[in-house]
Design goal:
heterodimer, A: 12 strands, B: 115 residues, 4-stranded antiparallel beta sheet, 11 strands
Chain lengths: 115, 115
């Protein structure tokens, strides 16, 4: 069955430190992969997406993610975290075998940033 | 563009009552969807539509109905509300009917409590 696992329920990092949020997926076909961010009381906003090509993907707000097919992973990184990055982050997968119609979301990782 | 709008923002229902959550988009998007978000579970797809007159079920469709009579609107109906339907509901849309290949734009959400 298709699934997305985000192993860390919450992470705390210091402002200015680097960040890596983990995402593992289970998907039979070629996946389309996404990272979304949700600020408190808001809807979700797309950070970046991977469909094909270069496995290192650049997104908004200085985020990047790397697709590793052999590890079924799509981890999100940022070299220097800002206090405004505190939010909840969701990894998601969709793909051709469902006609791309259905997107499966992970349970989310809440990021706390300390001064 | 207003993007994706949802009404109401908050709603409290009694068990057994019915109601309709409204969703509208002004971006001429083909694909629209409804998700529910529960703590620790990420977003789960309820129903989706790939165009006017075409709808299909997602992961958790029971207790919900949808219709898509126009491109712009995609209302979600709760037929007989149950406490298990207490959740935050998000509507999303994307230009392509193949949502997996396109960015989904999310509304601000409706927080529903069923007593």
């Amino acid at each position: 069955a298709q699934s997305v696992t985000q192993p860390d329920i919450h992470i705390t990092v210091s402002e200015g430190a680097s960040l890596e949020l983990r995402c593992n997926y289970s998907y039979g076909a070629t996946p389309y992969l996404f990272w979304y961010v949700q600020s408190p009381g808001q809807g979700l906003q797309l950070l970046l997406k991977y469909f094909s090509g270069d496995t290192l993907v650049q997104g908004i707000k200085g985020f990047e993610a790397e697709f590793k097919r052999s590890q079924s992973s799509f981890n999100l990184r940022k070299p220097s975290v800002h206090w405004s990055d505190a939010a909840e982050y969701f990894c998601a997968v969709a793909g051709e075998d469902t006609g791309g119609f259905k997107t499966i979301f992970g349970a989310g990782t809440r990021l706390f940033v300390k001064a | 563009n207003a993007g994706v709008t949802q009404t109401p923002k908050f709603q409290v229902l009694k068990t057994g009552q019915s109601m309709t959550l409204q969703c509208a988009q002004d971006m001429n998007h083909e694909y629209m969807s409804w998700y529910r978000q529960d703590p620790g579970m990420g977003l789960r797809l309820i129903h989706y539509s790939v165009g006017a007159g075409i709808t299909d079920q997602g992961e958790v469709p029971n207790g919900y109905n949808v219709s898509r009579s126009t491109t712009e609107d995609f209302p979600l109906r709760l037929l007989s509300a149950a406490p298990s339907q207490t959740s935050v509901y998000f509507c999303a849309s994307s230009y392509s009917y193949i949502s997996g290949r396109d960015t989904q734009y999310f509304g601000p959400g409706t927080r529903l409590t069923v007593l």
